[in-house]
Amino acid sequence: MKTLLTENEIAERIAQLGEEITEAYRGKELTAVIMMNGAVIFAADLLRKINLPLYIDCFSASSYENDRSTGKITVRSALKLPVQGRHVLLIDDILDTGLSMKYAVHYFLELGAASVKTCVLMDKMLESKQFEHADWVGFRIPDRYVVGYGLDSGEYYRNLPYVGVLTD
Ligand code: IMP
Ligand code: MG
Known about the structure:
- By secondary structure, the chain is an alpha/beta fold.
- Helix content is about 25%, strand content about 35%.
- It has helices at about 5-25, 40-45, 100-110; strands at about 1-5, 30-35, 55-65, 70-75, 85-95, 115-125, 135-140, 145, 165.
- Strands 4-3-2-5-6-7 form a six-stranded mixed beta sheet, sandwiched between helices.
- Helix 2 links the parallel strand 2 (about 30-35) and strand 3.
- The longest helix is centred in the first third of the chain and has 18 residues, at about 5-25.
- Magnesium ion binds near residues 35 and 93.
């Protein structure tokens, strides 16, 4: 395993993102939506750096099966709280092809959200994407398969406190 982002680097960046998001939504009612399962660790840390009253909900949609993007999205579990008229912040671990994020943004707009913004810990530098720009990006990283800090390979490694690249 080669470390790509250390625990410290991640914590420092999350503190900055938390401040920026707090400023951006000041005076608004926010619903933070955690994209399961990959974003669960990132969101847990980020949400504690957002100093605003907010709702938290979870959404599960996936384009990945066995470490590969299948190119189509399946919704596995929808929201529990109403989003109509609310400002939604989608929190995900990583923007890869962007298919999941593109799908989720449309999904929440269709449900009648007042606004939908996006925050990802990592953005993979791919030549073309379905969804080009998240509103907040923690780190831009090379196009490698990464694990840890919520991200898995075959469901393992999510509990690593840092982000790494698997070496054989
Ligand atoms: P996208 O729809 O291709 O952007 O894929 C996004 C989802 O795929 C992310 O939310 C992750 O759960 C998963 N994913 C994409 N790249 C990686 C990776 O390098 N490691 C682990 N999971 C990944
Ligand atoms: Mg995911």
